[in-house]
Amino acid sequence: MAELNWRSSAVKSVRRIHARVMESDGDTHDLYQLEQELKTLESHFARFVENHNHILGEAAPEDIGPHDTLWETVEELYGEACSKLNRRIATSRAQISSTPSTGGRTGPTTNLEGFSVDLKLDPIAIPAFDGDMCNWLAFKDAFETLVHRSTYPEAYKLGKLRQAVSASSVPLVGGIYSGGYEEVWKALKERYDNRKQLAEIHVSRFLNLKVAAEESSKALLAIVDTVHEMLRALRVMEIPVNQWDALSVPIVVSKLPSATKRDWCMKCSSHEIPLLEDLLKFLERRAHSISAEPPPRQQRSVKSHVAAAEVGQCAQCRGSHRIMKCPALIAMPIEQRFEAIRNLKLCYNCLRGGHSSRQCPSGGCRSCGRKHNTILCRDKPSTIVQPASPSPPHVSNEGTSQVKSTTAL
């Protein structure tokens, strides 16, 4: 395709000029030659951007990666060469303006303690815009400062705009051809630079502040940051927010946790209207003091099944008796009793929860002495399962008469 060939030619030209500028030792001070070199570089880069945008508009989504990589490479070469040429042009102009009749020459314009400094800063990133009107003001301010008011070619500005604005969220900047830079930028401003909608959005964010449910540094700072962001946005639109204290302070106070709200009310005067700025400073100091406090010691949680084995309540049948007296448990065979106690997660020895029989401080079986409850003893089940009630002694007639006589005595 023709655009691909034109772009390749432009890339070669930018690389060639970049190499020539970087290899030069800076002894060329011909102002006109330097300015012509800069114009040539700008024209090649503009040709690259124009054809790159056409190719990118027709490329499939999965093929965009290599194109973006090429863009970053060429943009870096272009920026580096432009910076060096502009510094040499500035130095040459300074030398021309400072050359007196004596013919003296001045040193480099950027000098620290006699050493010439060649500063190279990373390019400032433009915040991306995703179509959310809450982010429009920040994006517009940065883009107009860094790109729109610059002297870059129109094709370069359009390329930077398409880089910063997501075409999937804002379709009017995408497509094979969506117009020149001025047309696209004007369309964006007509859609998003709406004072009425922007004011309503930011005021709504202020009115719908989330209530701080807990007394934490994070919750308090979230309120402070949201209020500051809203105020900055409204000030940019020249809305007089400095006179909103009587309205804004009660709204913010209603979103605070109870302890912070009480301390703020104790601090305020009972007659004067408090200032929103003072409230935000108070919240900042309180948030920092909370974050500086040592975290409270956490008490160890102890697992306990005592609720299932409370004194006077049977864990097996929930009756009003201790589990070792439970008729349902006593009626079971020994092995089933073990199974029932295991399912209830109780100690085999004292029949309570929270520990095992090895850890149990209670005494052992009354029949065999081992670490299990007497109702779980396998040695003499007949004497444990159902203790027999003592039968009345057999009294003979002789004994009866003897007792009677003794009683009579």
Per DSSP E runs of 2 or more residues, the count of β-strands stands at: 2
**N-to-C SSE series?**
HHHEEHHHHHHHHHHHH
Q: What share of the residues lie within helices?
A: 40-55%
- Indicate the proportion of strand residues: under 5%
The overall average pLDDT, rounded, is 77
Largest sheet: 2 strands, antiparallel
Q: What ranges have pLDDT less than 50 throughout 5 or more consecutive residues?
A: 101-117, 299-311, 382-409
* SS element count, helices: 15
Spatially, the strands of the biggest sheet line up as 1-2
Number of domains: 4
Distance between the termini: 140 Å
Summing up helix and strand content along with how strands pair, one would put the structural category as mainly alpha
Using the CA coordinates, give the radius of gyration. Answer: 44 Å
General shape: elongated
Overview of this protein structure:
The chain is built from 15 helices and 2 strands. The chain is an all-alpha fold. It folds into 4 domains: 2-116; 133-193, no CATH class; 198-292, no CATH class; 308-385, no CATH class. It has a two-stranded antiparallel sheet. A hairpin with a 2-residue loop joins strand 1 and strand 2 (115-116). Helix 1 (2-23) packs antiparallel against helix 2 (31-58), helix 1 packs parallel to helix 3 and helix 7 runs antiparallel to helix 8 (217-236). The N and C termini lie far apart (140 Å).
Please give a handful of descriptors for the protein shown.
409 residues, mainly alpha, 4 domains, two-stranded antiparallel sheet, 15 helices, 54% helix, 1% strand, elongated, disordered C terminus
